Amino acid sequence: MSCGDPHETDCSEVLDHLYEFLDHEMPDGDCAKFEVHIDECSPCLEKYGLEQAVKKLVKRCCGHDDVPADLRSKVMGRIELIRAGQSVPEQDVVAEARAAEAAARTAKSAESAPGTKSARSASGGPARPGPLGATTQE
After folding, report:
1. How far is the CA of 52 from the CAs of 7, 21, 62, 123, in angstroms?
2. Residue 133: is its pLDDT beyond 80?
3. CA-to-CA distance for 17 and 12, rounded, in angstroms?
4. Helix axes 28-40, 42-62, angle to 10 degrees
5. What's the gap between Cα 74 and its chain centre?
């Protein structure tokens, strides 16, 4: 994408690093170059606005969910590998994320579920209330 006008910073560079810019994860000097470019280039400004809106929507809809520690660790590990220029093993990241999310939901449900007692005693017979709420064996 390009507006056709020459810029100090190329449109492809801006778009390749747009999320770093949005997330404030780039050096101040680079941010300043990107701000100048976005102010000058309407297609990049439009893309910036769209990505910013998507980011806000995701935060509003999903920002309250806790990320499982193991998933966060895996994602951060992959990011570090990519930044170091190393190859990243081919894995189904989506399947891993869904499995981690399901495990977290299961653990959360187990933690929040009230302790329920079985209607049967340990020996298998029906339990019935006894004196002061204790259960007795039939």
Report:
1. 22, 10, 15, 62
2. no
3. 9
4. 120
5. 12
- Please tell me the distance from the alpha carbon of residue 30 to that of residue 51, in angstroms, as a whole number: 19
Measure the CA dihedral 116/120/121/122, to 10°.
-90
Report helix, strand or coil for 136: strand
Rounded Cα gap, residues 68 and 104, in angstroms: 7
Residue 54 amino acid letter: V
Check residue 17 and report its DSSP letter: T
For 127, the 3-state DSSP assignment is: strand
pLDDT tens digits, one per residue of 44-103: 999 999 999 998 888 888 777 777 888 888 888 888 888 888 877 666 666 777 777 788
| Long-range CB contacts for residues 37-41, cutoff 8 Å, separation at least 24 | 37/7, 37/8, 37/9, 37/11, 38/14, 40/5, 40/7, 41/2, 41/3, 41/5, 41/7, 41/11, 41/14
Q: What pTM was computed for the model?
A: 0.46
